[in-house]
Design goal:
The complex is a heterodimer. Chain A is built from 9 helices and no strands. By secondary structure, chain A is mainly alpha-helical. In chain A, helix 1 packs across helix 2 and helix 3 crosses helix 4. Chain A starts with 8 loop residues before the first helix and ends with a helix. Chain B is mainly alpha-helical. Chain B has a domain of 38 residues. Chain B has 6 helices and no strands. Classes of the chains: A mainly alpha, B mainly alpha. At the A-B interface, helix 2, helix 3, helix 5, helix 6 and helix 8 of A face helix 1 and helix 2 of B.
Amino acid sequence: MPGLDHLSDAELVDLCNTGDRGGAIAAFETLYARHKDYVLRVAFRYVGDADLALDVLQDTFSYILRKFPPPGEGLVLKAQLPTLLYVVAKNNAISILRKASKGDAGGDIDPDELPAPGYRDSGDLAKLLQGLTPGQREIITLRFVDDQPLQDIANTLQIPLGTVKSRLHKAIEAMRKLPSVKDFFEK
Amino acid sequence: MHEDDNLEALPDELVAELKKADKPGALITAKVDRSIADLAREQFESRPEKRRRVAPAWYAVAATVLLAVLVLPISSRFGTVDDGLYADVDNSGQIDIADVMTLARRDGEVTQAELDAFAMQIVSLADTGDTS
């Protein structure tokens, strides 16, 4: 079923829920094509490894697929789809890092040291944001790289809107002092 | 973007630099695409098709047809009996044996079986005291 690009995410999700098999498959493939690059970028921010990022991508869309059980009883979007994809990709990335950590060192990642965007130093974004706390990196990335509205960030991080504003303010202040980017503020 | 979203901003050049630096770090190969497409097919083809919801009107039609099939043969079997038979034929104010006799005098109009049925009805009514 070609030509579903004109449909919104919500309409495609609805088609996955209620459409016949052919329609549901086509709708899901359209959602995948639309958001796969975003999910991969989110994944790479966390895992900093190409192969692991691809694993996260597959796990994320596999998770979304499982949300479409019998027709009419599937996923109900209460936020923008990218918000959901971000959360799922982040959790999958953390899970994969934990498994990798157990495999490599026989230990687990300290929950307080959960990765945030740029956690791994292999990405250029990580280098630019080096020196910020994981939380500051995450909120800067969501706001200025992903262009998420503040309310969507609040939904993504499950924190109040006021907390988002406060954290964002502190993160920007911290960025002004970063050697990697402070020149941008002085131009 | 909401109106208060502009309260905190970064220099445009820095935002552009951040976006440029946000590389996916990997290429999504055709193999990965196929793998997810296969998962989708597996998921959607294994799930049961949506059961068609029968409109309530169709339930009503079906019930009517069923009733017609079951009830019509019965009513037609007694169709010659009920009109005027289970009635106060002689206008006496009650249904009784006199009505049976009145009907019996109508040559050929009432069969013995119908009379028996009517008589049973009289008895039944009499037993309850309704016709006494």
